[in-house]
Write a structure and sequence with these properties.
The chain has an eight-stranded mixed sheet with strand order 1-2-3-4-5-6-8-7, with helices on both faces. The two termini are 32 Å apart. β3 and β4 form a beta hairpin. By secondary structure, the protein is α+β, with helices and mostly antiparallel strands. The longest helix has 18 residues. The chain has one domain: Gcn5-related N-acetyltransferase (GNAT) (Aminopeptidase), CATH 3.40.630. The relative contact order is 0.13.
Length: 212
């Protein structure tokens, strides 16, 4: 998988104003005042986008994305996708207090959002609460690319032993191909709500030491 990862130094220009942001969690979670125009939707759909042409942005600050217009537009696209996929603004959950982190998969020129995910590490497990891919990009490997990036990052963390998520029944086979197993016969405590009709799934990364 040739998806690029934007380094912290590369992101410094995009987030040069982030240090001056307020520490409050509830900032800037409202919908943008200017809706997405029909022309911009058409331009996104007409772009030839491949996984090899994308970059993963980690720990994206939606509350203060800086002045870079590309980042502001990616945040707008993320909010719109979230409303379509979950009927809510998932970015409202990504706050300093909640510790949920926002990751974006976008084209390398930062013009088109290809997927987003909310993740959080708690008690040795990486929880994935929300992951969504625009309709026009589904089935092209973008969701898999973002999941594999999250799993790779989790493996690097010595204190992360498994990855957990709640899957729609229609997506269970997709996650099984990534090494997840359905946990249908056990009751578990998670950092996210397991909606009725969904399946709780876990991918083991390494054995847990005794007492953890």
């Amino acid at each position: 998988m040739n998806t690029a990862i934007l380094s912290e130094s590369s992101l410094s220009l995009l987030h040069k104003t982030e240090d001056r942001c307020s520490e409050t969690d509830g900032a800037s979670t409202a919908e943008p005042e200017t809706p997405c125009s029909a022309s911009s939707i058409e331009s996104v759909a007409s772009v030839s986008v491949t996984v090899e042409n994308t970059v993963v942005l980690h720990n994206v600050s939606h509350a203060c994305p800086g002045t870079d217009k590309r980042m502001l537009d990616l945040i707008r696209q993320t909010r719109e996708l979230s409303e379509l996929a979950f009927d809510e603004d998932a970015l409202a959950h990504a706050t300093k207090k909640s510790h949920w982190k926002l990751s974006l998969l976008a084209t390398k020129d930062l013009s088109v959002l290809c997927a987003f995910a909310l993740t959080k590490i708690t008690n040795g497990a990486l929880s994935i609460a929300k992951i969504a891919v625009p309709v026009e990009f589904r089935g092209l490997g973008f969701g898999k690319a973002l999941m594999e990036d999250a799993i790779k990052a989790a493996k690097k963390g010595g204190e992360v032993y498994e990855v957990a998520l709640s899957s729609l029944s229609t997506a269970v086979s997709f996650y099984k191909r990534l090494g997840f197993k359905a946990m249908t016969a056990v009751k578990v405590k998670t950092d996210f709500e397991v909606v009725e009709g969904q399946v709780y799934m876990v991918k083991k990364l390494r054995p847990r030491p005794k007492g953890k």
